[in-house]
Amino acid sequence: MKKMMSLLAVLVLVFSTNSFALDKKAKKKTATKKDAKASDVTENAKLKAELGSMSTFSMSGSLGYTGASLKDPFGDQRPNPDSLPGNYSTYLSGSISARYRLDKSTSITGGASFLYYIPENYVDRDGEIVKNDPELSNPSLSYNKVIKGDGYVQTKSYGITKYTKQSTLDNGWSWDLSYSTAFYWSNVKDSDFTLGFSFSAYHELFNKDIYAQYAGEGKTGIDDFGFGIYPFAEYQLSESISLRSVIGQAFYHDVGNPNFNNFERLKLYQTFGVGIAITDLIYMYNYVKFYPVMNIENNPGESFNDTAYWAMSLTFNLF
What we know:
The chain is α+β, with helices and mostly antiparallel strands. Helices cover 18% and strands 48% of the residues. It has a single domain, classed as Porin. The relative contact order is 0.17. Mean pLDDT is 85; it is low at 1-7 and 9-34. The chain has helices at 2-29, 45-51, 166-170, 208-214, 292-297, 304-307; strands at 57-69, 91-103, 106-117, 121-123, 129-131, 137-148, 153-162, 173-185, 193-206, 223-236, 241-254, 264-265, 269-279, 282-290, 309-317. The chain is built from six helices and 15 strands. Strand 6 (137-148) and strand 7 form a beta hairpin. Strands 1-2-3-6-7-8-9-10-11-13-14-15 form a twelve-stranded antiparallel β-barrel.
């Protein structure tokens, strides 16, 4: 576990250093040009990093770590407040993407992702021991749009992913169709607050044979479509540091349920953390994720320390 945390720290440092150097070169190169910049659209650090470079061609990526409970911070198992089947080992995740910008507000992105569970081997939902497989998988393509309105910014994304990771294919998932949108209201009433919310929805396409096995089984813990609503608030402490909190409520339809209007509701969660704008093209969010309603009820094994965990995410752009 400590070796993996050291590796994560090194990766963050390498990406931050390289991206910072590239960002400085880009600024020198374009100092005399009136090129579009993400800051022309928004001053929000997180959104600027997500919008990335305004170059016609660019690269971007992400890196994340999801850890164990605060009660056992160096453990290798994450909390499972919804008691769903699956692998709840701690993990590193990431993605790398190429972006083609049609104009300053529209882009097409293609890339792939990886997921590396911290234990070298883990037990899958069928009780079989599986060896970690960290290579890039699940290629995706998305169409992205940003709209600058009167006092707000809206982002929209339409995506498609082809699942290639074997553990995902074993559950029957073949393709994923997704849609997401977010609204940002910055400097609310001339303050340092940013308010907003995001909405996302998805639909999984299944292998026909495996889908037929799930039909009519009732609650399987395998989802075929769902959606979520995520209001958030930020307070800017300085030019590069902000406090950020997100509340999330997600719903999904179980593939074994024949009633398509019947959704399962996941536990409401909240994150609270510190956002750091390393440059305009690099943003890090260190946060604690917890379950306020569950913690208030305080049933055995559902205390704050039992269910809350630390995580981090890094968004970076190479040029």
